[in-house]
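Regression test attached.
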Amino acid sequence: MKYPKPINLIVGLMLMIPMDLSAGIGEETEAILHQIFPGADDFEFKTLELDHQAKRQAEIASRQAFQMEKIFLWEIRSGEEVIGFAVLDNVQGKVQPITYVVVYDRKLAVVAVRIIRYREQYGGAVQDPSWLDQFKGFKADSKFLLGADIDGITGATLSANALTRGVKRISVYVSLLIGKD
Amino acid sequence: MQQYKHLLLATLLAVSIPFSGGYTQTFAGLDQLVFNPKTTIGGYGEMHYNQVSSENGSTTGTLDFHRFVLFYSHAWTEKWSFKSEVELEHNFVKSGQGELELEQAFVDYHHSDAFGIQTGVILPSVGFINEYHEPPLFFGVERPDYAKYIIPTTWFGNGAAVYGTLLGVDYRVVLMEGLDGIKFSPGSGLRSGRQKGYKAEATHPLVNLKLESRAIDGMIVGGSFSHMEAPDTLQGISSANPTTLTELHLNMERSGFIVRGEFGQIHYGKPELVSGVRSARGYYLDLGYDFREIFNLKGELIPWFRYSDINTAAVTEGVDAAIEADHHNSQWMIGLQLKPIPQVVYKLDYGKFRPENGTESTLFNLGVGYMF
């Protein structure tokens, strides 16, 4: 039996380490947006300051505070036409933040929700696409009632609750902000 | 020289990959904006009223703030964090009354969903309630008797765990302090053997493995196996009682129905050290239905039913078999739980406790619990 030479192991390890580093949150999110909008040709990323009034209204409607000071927004276009939006956001898990993206069509109905980073041992079931697909079609004025509109998850009570409120909060925020334009 | 060529090629590849995503956007600094080191506080608590009426006419009633728990945690990076759980039981600590416990305190390295390591005071993975014991997460004011006499919750100790999800299956392997075998008893199983991290005897650690699947929507099914040599903390391995605990658990939630059941068995290697008990076993089954949709409620309203059967001396050797009946009881219980929001629960239950040998008693409990 031929064993790998140490140098080959080192090469292998060196290849693995940067693969890990390359997966930045922005790149990962944008790769998902490419899958959701295969026909789009422009994904414009913007970092915006939170609008104080819209923030307050979104927090009241969702009963959840923003975790970050800024809004990370993609405007997705096909030719000149805007066909969708996406917002990257955090909610607080038990200890670590959960980073997720909410993707909207141009009428601001939810097209998809995806978890970008889940950093906890417990509650990982919120990453399940079939659970996240329940948000499809929701708009800012939807109720987002966990247990009725959205199924709860055993063993992920806090994460499921935080995400449900988070998607509501972002939906209200973008409806106020983008709705004004 | 050929080797160095490979190394150079690998280095070049490694450096180039982060810049070769093919996207025109730059996300400089985004990862740092999205993640900030943070200290968090969480917790749970529960207050109970327990009334026990014995068939012989006596009735007792106690009001107890059973548990007040704080989670204090800090995340340094996306992968490195510290988590802790400090518990005050029964409101007050004084010479043998009440308890102050450090139930969790560990450094967590979460490499990925597939792999993480926890080192410190940890909980072994045995059944639902040892790890998920916040009051809104189980039926009944009190935890099921199963989670006391078959699985000695809350079971915690010093050690390390490796955990993750592979091929859709959650796994966790724990190596931690064992139990003090000399304190096992026919009446309370492993419970009194817990060392609780207090200068724990650790020459012969506990090994615990859990596997759990969530492959089917709304269903969790899993099991665990634990083995320990259980030496006497004073006399050492010469008086060890090699012991295993095996359990299976299932939770299903579908169309408002909730079914939860657990079954567990303890097997003692040396029955003579546990008054002749070879095995203990027990189970409970919960059935509930959430009336939220029917009544168009904002919160949960769940009436539920439980049946449980426990025998902490199910199989004996070399002793009068009557001991088996002495430690056998069954219990049925009906209850109602109301959760106005997912983190707050009000509970009410009523049931009958039927020992095979002994006096039947009627239980009535009220409780409130919270988690955050």
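Expected vs. actual: identical. The longest strand of chain B covers residues 38-54.
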